[in-house]
Amino acid sequence: MTPTVIQTAPIDGQKPGTSGLRKKTRIFLQPHYLENYVQAIFDGIGGVAGAHLVVGGDGRYFNDRAIQVILRMAAANGAARCTVGQGGLLSTPAASHLIRKLQATGGLILSASHNPGGPDEDFGLKYNGPNGGPATEAVTERIHARTRDIDTYRIIETQDIDLDTAGETTLADMVVAIVDPVTDHADLMETLFDFDAIRALFAGGFRMRFDAMHAVTGPYAREVLETRLGAPAGTVVNGTPLPDFGGGHPDPNPIWAKDLMQAMHGADAPDFGAASDGDGDRNMIVGRHCYVSPSDSLAVLADLAHLAPGYAAGLKGVARSMPTSCAADRVAAAKGIDCYETPTGWKFFGSLLDAGRATICGEESAGTGSDHVREKDGLWAVLLWLNILAVTGKSVAALMADHWARYGRNYYSRHDYEAVDSAAATGLIDALRARLPDLPGTEAAGLTIAAADEFSYDDPVDGSRATGQGIRIGFANGARLVFRLSGTGTEGATLRVYLEQLETDPGRLDRDPQEALTPVIAAAEALAGIAARTGRTAPDVIT
Ligand code: G16
């Protein structure tokens, strides 16, 4: 089979965002769109001659077709081997693990994460490097640069590969290995957690509901929770991956995982609830009548991870993205370990994990993970929680009360304004930026501003610098406000406003977060003029 060289031309807008290229599916379906981007990835990483690539995705609409194209292009570009998840499925953490385990060159992961799927919804593609983590900024920039001067791509014209049958086949000179996507990841989980203790928990009548949201984690969760840990059949709900996620948003938060929230707040609520997203890297944790915010989850896991065998030696350090609440910082301080503050994007944790500076990382956007892979890992977070619940014998609510009593509570919320006019959103951020030097010492809605800056990050390991990573406003009373534009949306701009208020008064640790944050919400409006600039008087999503 001789590779065909197809003439093409650059297509505007192929700039990767926070996590690879995410666009409306119909944009990806345009002639040459996918092919241009795949060739730009191959060229941007210096070619794939002789390479071993891991390929898989979250099963959304176009996943299977795109994989066929990627395989034919990999073969045409001289790759030696592609390892593909059976049925084209690989959760993002499972792909990260496979890259590391097989010492592959890297991987192509097809997902738009928590965004809905279907011909009129979203699609995405990202490249992960040899450490199993998302491409660094430098690699991403090379890929983007290549999209801007691309003139040809290489592809083999042949029949489709059977993605559903495990085993090896060839495509021109390239070996294609179709592998069970679940087993390796489940085996890795067994090395980290006390499966006997969790098994005993379930055997004792502990009840759990895991909502896989019709996305990729269903088979992983069934294997681990129901088959290996003995949770009753039916513990995993919505466990079959569907191309359109059953018409929902596979976004594990109280808004989109409403059924789970209702079940966990009902009269006969299970002891523990969890959900994961489209590609299995995000998680939501909820106890009986007790939602745990992602920032609090990170802090509790950092505090109690030593109760799991894989972390018994303690943590080397903790890292969180800048907008994530500062709850983990106080845990790190109490333990005498470093806490790193990075820009939004899991790619920024990679160098800290590789260098052994951080063991656990987390983000307000429902991602937590550790150095076992180089991605966030939804099922990992759920299992660490289960391990902690099994060892302590406490409920989620009791653990949270203990945590806040010891460390204080960072009331936290994120307000999202979606599909905002891009110019209006950029104007809002620009106006705030211009005022930063004058803000300290002034008041916003009665709160005194102590500090104001735009976040920049100097990676302590590789020295790379990332600028323009969000506007930070710190208040004298311990409150904090962050404004940033999302890098994962596919329509207009998404303005994210992150709100935080530290509370240490023991009598005020059990308030409704939105109520506790009312003064900070007012300060955000006073400072940014959100309603006037965007025409929106309320956020679209509050998490
Ligand atoms: C990605 C990144 C995360 C980031 C999230 C939201 O997650 O890996 O680090 O926190 O997007 O980013 P933004 O605020 O720019 O929309 P995922 O789960 O979507 O791959």
Describe this structure in words.
The protein is 32% helix and 25% strand. A hairpin with a 2-residue loop joins strand 8 (167-171) and strand 9. It is globular. The strands form six sheets. It has a seven-stranded mixed sheet with strand order 2-6-5-3-4-9-8, sandwiched between helices. Strands 20-21-24-25-26-19-27 form a seven-stranded antiparallel sheet. It folds into three domains: 4-180, Alpha-D-Glucose-1,6-Bisphosphate, Chain A, domain 3 (3-Layer(aba) Sandwich); 184-407, Alpha-D-Glucose-1,6-Bisphosphate, Chain A, domain 3; 410-542, TATA-Binding Protein (2-Layer Sandwich), CATH 3.30.310. The chain is an alpha/beta fold. The N and C termini lie far apart (52 Å). Helix 2 crosses helix 3 (63-76), helix 2 (33-44) packs across helix 5 and helix 10 packs parallel to helix 11 (327-335). The protein contains 18 helices and 27 strands. The longest helix is centred in the C-terminal third of the chain and has 15 residues, at 378-392.
Give the C-level CATH assignment of the largest domain: Alpha Beta
CATH superfamily caption of the largest domain: Alpha-D-Glucose-1,6-Bisphosphate, subunit A, domain 3
Helical content band: 25-40%
Overall structural domain count: 3
Unreliable runs, pLDDT <50, ≥5 residues?
Answer: none
Query: What is the name of the CATH topology of the largest domain?
Result: Alpha-D-Glucose-1,6-Bisphosphate, Chain A, domain 3
Query: What is the terminal separation in angstroms?
Result: 52 Å
Beta-strand content bin: 25-35%
Tell me the structural class. Answer: alpha/beta
Q: Count of DSSP E strands?
A: 27
- Give the strand order of the largest sheet, numbering strands 1, 2, ... along the chain: 2-6-5-3-4-9-8
Number of helices: 18
CATH architecture of the largest domain: 3-Layer(aba) Sandwich
Mean pLDDT equals: 97
Computed CA radius of gyration, to the nearest angstrom: 23 Å
Bound molecules: 1,6-di-O-phosphono-alpha-D-glucopyranose
The shape, in one word, is globular
Biggest beta-sheet profile: 7 strands, mixed
